[in-house]
Amino acid sequence: MQNLNSKFKVDIKQRTYQFSLSIINLTNELPKTRAAWVITDQVIRSSTSIGANLVEARASSSRLEFKKFYEISLKSANETIYWLNLLRDSRICNDKEIDVLIKEATEISNILGKSVISLKKK
Fold first, then answer.
1. What is the DSSP string of 37-84?
2. pLDDT tens-digit profile of 52-99?
3. CA–CA gap between residue 100 and residue 32 (Å, rounded)
4. Which positions ≥6 away from 49 have C-beta within 8 Å?
5. 4 pLDDT exceeds 60?
6. pLDDT tens digits for range 13-40
């Protein structure tokens, strides 16, 4: 069981890191308009916060603190979905490209949500 848990931690950490890189690459290609800049700034902040808070969780000094970092990571994932939807619906970005990122953000959010529920039960 410990090995499976370790694999999960590596997978989610790597997955959130790759997701952040995908967001950065996407935003570098967006038009240089005021609206795009504002949304880009927010989506970069929220998407990179997901993985950063998981890294912080590993260094936490208590179970409560560990759970809190996971909760913050979940909130950042949900916020990222909001900003990606805004990019898509405002037509600042290509629907296909954004839809892939929204799907990934939703999957990450679901994983984190299940983790938070599990941590709250213990």
1. HHHHHHHHHHHHHHHHHHHHHHT-SSHHHHHHHHHHHHHHHHHHHHHH
2. 999 999 999 999 999 999 999 999 999 999 999 999 999 999 888 899
3. 22
4. 72, 73, 76
5. no
6. 999 999 999 999 999 999 999 999 999 9
Q: Which residues are CB-neighbours of 4 under 8 A, at least 6 positions away? A: none
Yes or no: domain 2-121 corresponds to CATH 1.20.1440.60: yes
Structure tokens at 114: 């299940």
DSSP state for residue 1 in the 8-state scheme: -
**pLDDT at residue 2 greater than cutoff 70:** no
Q: Which residue has the tokens 């990606």?
A: 84
Q: From residue 118, how far is each of 15, 113, 114, 115, 122 by CA, in Å?
A: 20, 9, 6, 5, 7
Name the residue ranges covered by the structural domains of the chain: 2-121
Spatial separation of the C-alpha atoms in residues 39 and 44, rounded to whole Å: 9
- Measure the CA–CA gap between 77 and 79, rounded to whole angstroms: 5
Check if the beta carbon of residue 23 is closer than 8 Å to that of residue 40.
no
